[in-house]
Structures are given as C-alpha cells and as structure tokens.
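Workshop exercise sheet. Pairs work together: one partner reads the sequence aloud, the other fills in the structure field after running the prediction. Swap roles for the next sheet.
Pair: D.N. / O.F.
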Amino acid sequence: MKAVVKPEPGPGFVVTSVPDPAPAPGEVLLRVEAASICGTDVHLYEWNPWAAGRVHPPRVMGHEMCGSVVARGGGVESVPIGARVAVETHLVCGHCPECRRGDFHVCANTRILGVDVDGVFAEYVRVPAHNTWPVAPGLAPELGALMEPFGNAVHACSYGRLRSQTVAVFGCGPIGCMCVGIARAEGATRIVAIDRNPYRLELARAMGADVVVDASLDDEAILDAAGGPLDCALEMSGAPAAIAAATRLVRPGGWVSLLGIGDAPATLDLSRDVVMKGLTLYGVTGRRMFSTWEQTSAYLTGNRIDVSPLLTHRLPLESVDDAIALMRSGQCGKVVLRPGPNNA
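Structure field:
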C-alpha cells in the first residue's frame, strides 16, 4: 500500500509503498477515507528535538483519521465489517495505576499512532478495536477525521462553566477555533479570540468569536475587548507570554485550561496571579476515554456546532509536502489528506 513514511532520522517525509498491515487479535483493519494534519505532524516533519527523542524510524506518520472496517482480528465482535469509525489515537495499557483509576488519558505507558506505532497517513491501518469510535451515518469523512482533535477542545472546555461567562481563547489554530465554537454552543456571554495571525483570527470569528484581538497588543486591549476581567481562559498556543497573560487577566476564582505546548518554559507570578487569586489551572492532554468522544459526537451530529469553516484544504496523500507547507504558513485551518483513488 501507499503511505507517508519517516524513513530515517532527519527532516521530511517520503511517500512510498509499504507492506499491507494485517489485524492481530483484538484489532481491526481500517481503510483510511480521510486523515487530517496537526501540529505534531509538523514537528515530526521538521524533526525537532521532541521528535528526535521520541520517534524511532522507519515509521508511518499520522494519527487523525476516519475510515471503514475491512477486516477483524481474532476475538473482535463488537465492531462490524463495513462500520465507519474515527480513532482514539492514544493506545493505553489498561493496567497502570492511572488506567485502573479510569484516567486512561494520562496512562503512564501511552503509545501514539504515527509516533510510537505506525500511523494513518496510508491506505490502510490496523488499530485496537477498543480505540474505534462509530461515526454517524452521513457524517463526511473529513468531519470524522476531525473528531480526534475536536475531542481535545472538548476536554479543554470541560473543566468549568462556560454559560454566561466571558471566555478568552489564546491561540486560534484549529483546536483554539474549535474551543470558540464550543464556548458559543454552551452559551458564553462574550468570546474573545487572541492570536497574531489575521487569517486564523478570521477563522475564529467564523466559529463564533464576538471580538478578535492581535496578541501583540497589551493586557488593556484584551480587557477592553472583553468588557472587563475574564471569567476563564482557554490557552491553546503554548506561548509563554500567552500563558502568563491568561493568569494575569482571569478574575479571582476563575480558571484556565492549558493545552498548548510551547518551545520554552513559561514564567508566571504564581503568588500574585494564581495563589492569591484562587485561580485554577487545568492541564489538558488528549481526550478522556471515552466521555469526551460522547460529547464530541453530540456536538458534531446534533447540529450544535458547524466546523466546516475549519476544513480549508483537501489534498491527495501524495501532496503531503504541500500540506505541511500550508500548516507552516499559518494560512489554513484543517488540512485533510485523502488516500486512494477517490482523493480529489
């Protein structure tokens, strides 16, 4: 089959032929209908220090996908042949203390598709049957592929109340824009979207932001846009300055969700901006398995949130270099790859 591969340590991907996978007991084989690119894939393409320390090539890349079940390994009965599914990309052990408590999203032995095991930028992929999630009939494959990153946004928004709150979203990449949509669906009074990229600020506006703010402006500009202190902040950028600003600008007793991962540590005034304000910081990794997926399905299949403005580019699998270039330019929302003959 055709796949996007990191063949050896170093920058870049190659599109090449690899052996077709076969499902082991407890696994299903999926035909990939759509696979979307995220920032992790860009890091892997660039071969940054995190990628170099984590990935052991050769490896098939990619983790966000929608596909259909074409074969089942031994013991799999719950997922029928022909079922259309999205995939939870964190493969957990099920026996560490975190898993035994039900905190699968922080499993100590997590492996990730396209990072620690072969991924989904391919015509076929094998995954544990337990990691599949049914896609509603009629939901486009591109939307099915978005369920995984949308789940990150759902998780980030789940810590506290959004209804009747003033909410700031720092970082308007696709997941930040998804958070805007969730805050709007949950009845936030005012949503302020903050980023340096005009293209992505317009995407945030399309997803329901009341006002957008250039991140290069000072605290006063954000507070003016918000009409006063923030009730909560959803920090999606990982930029140290944005993390510090979120803690400064959220009111006493408010909360901040932290999902963005930056390239440098953030310096916070914990005494003034967290401890003495009674601020709550909530670290977000992955999706809660599987309550977050339930909520994601409700949002996307119940006509509560329209994420179509974020689906800005669709490319064939062979154009992965162009897709990565789009991501690096910041002039896109979600870029979706379509494997196989029907990939136009």
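Discussion prompt: The first helix runs from residue 39 to 46. What would you look at next?
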